[in-house]
Amino acid sequence: MTEDGKPVADDEQPHGDAGTPAQPLSPQPSEEAGRGRIRHQDPEHTTPREPTLAEQRARIAAEKRREDEHRAELEAAADKTKKRRRLMIGGGATVGVVALVAAMYTASEVSSEANAVTQYCAADQGGQAVAANDENCDENYVRSHGGYVDHSSGFIFMPLFLGGPPAPQYRYAYTSPGSPAPSVGSSTGGTFTKPADSTIKTKSGSTIQRGGFGISSKSGSSGS
Q1: Cα separation of 118 and 208, whole Å?
Q2: Residue 21, helix vs strand vs coil
Q3: Residues 202, 138 contacting (CB under 8 angstroms)
Q4: 91 with 176, same domain?
Q5: pLDDT tens digit sequence for 138-157
Q6: Is the dihedral of CA 96, 213, 188, 173 positive or negative?
Q7: Pick from 196, 197, 194: which is nearest to 213 by CA?
Q8: Which of 30, 140, 187, 211 is most buried, by CB atoms within 10 Å?
Q9: Which residue range(s) make up the domain with 121?
Q10: Which long-range contacts (CB under 8 A, 24 or more apart) does 177-184 make?
Q11: pLDDT tens-digit profile of 26-77?
């Protein structure tokens, strides 16, 4: 039937199988319908996918690299601590040795000064040292007064008119360690043998020879 109530002509009927009613056409999905959608996953109910073999290998390699770096840092710190300890021990040992040597040297110096031998001028009277005036052992004084010095023996000879007969002979004598020089005319505790390893001082306190702790320092001149 048409809109005005007239029957539809046969050629205007829709084609199809005889006796089969026409099926309505289903709407085609639009191409834009599936675009721009975000698929939401619930982390509490969604099962995470297993990592791929490449991802597993990369994770293992990264963990091994971190372990190697940490081990290298620990070894470097231990080596630094060991070197610092060696330096401290070596420095302490060096300081200890230096302090010990200094203490021994100081003790030796104090002992040498306390046990110093005093050199003084003495007349040789039959091998006995009798204390005399210091000027009699002064070469300049002796020569200016006509005397002479025998350096091979250490004797100093004065002319007869100054000392009277017999010709006086003088030489340096030495006290016992730590003892002062005797007064002129005294023959107490003197010897003409010069000590080799002792500190020797003059009556005024000047050091002629320094001894002790392997040190031998000589200065000035004296008879033997």
Answers
A1: 9
A2: coil
A3: no
A4: no
A5: 888 888 877 777 777 667 66
A6: negative
A7: 197
A8: 211
A9: 117-218
A10: 177/115, 177/116, 177/117, 178/114, 178/115, 178/116, 179/118, 180/118, 181/118, 181/119, 181/120, 181/131, 182/120, 182/131, 183/131, 184/131, 184/132, 184/133
A11: 655 555 555 656 666 666 767 777 888 888 899 899 999 999 999 999 999 8
**Same structural domain, 143 and 186:** yes
Instruction: Please state, in angstroms and rounded to a whole number, the distance separating the CA atoms of residues 161 and 49.
Output: 132
Q: Where is the domain boundary, 65, 86, 114?
A: 114
**122 and 191 co-located in one domain:** yes
Measure the CA–CA gap between 77 and 119, rounded to whole angstroms.
65
Cα 36 vs. chain centroid, distance in angstroms? 74
- Does residue 96 belong to any structural domain of this protein? yes
- The half-sphere exposure of 185 on its side-chain side, counting CA atoms within 13 A, is 0
Model confidence, pTM: 0.44
How crowded is residue 195: how many other Cβ atoms within 10 Å of its Cβ? 16
Beta bridge partners, 150, equal 155
Q: Last residue of a domain, which of 81, 97, 114?
A: 114
Residues 103 and 67 in one domain: yes
As a whole number, the mean pLDDT across the chain is 74
Q: Tell the residue number behind the tokens 């002479």, with chain if given.
A: 148
Strands 200-201 and 117-125: parallel
Q: Are residues 213 and 135 part of one domain? A: yes
Q: Which among 198, 219, 207 is positioned nearest to 115, based on CA atoms?
A: 198
The DSSP secondary structure of 173-191, one letter per residue, reads: EEPPTTPPPPPTT--SS-B
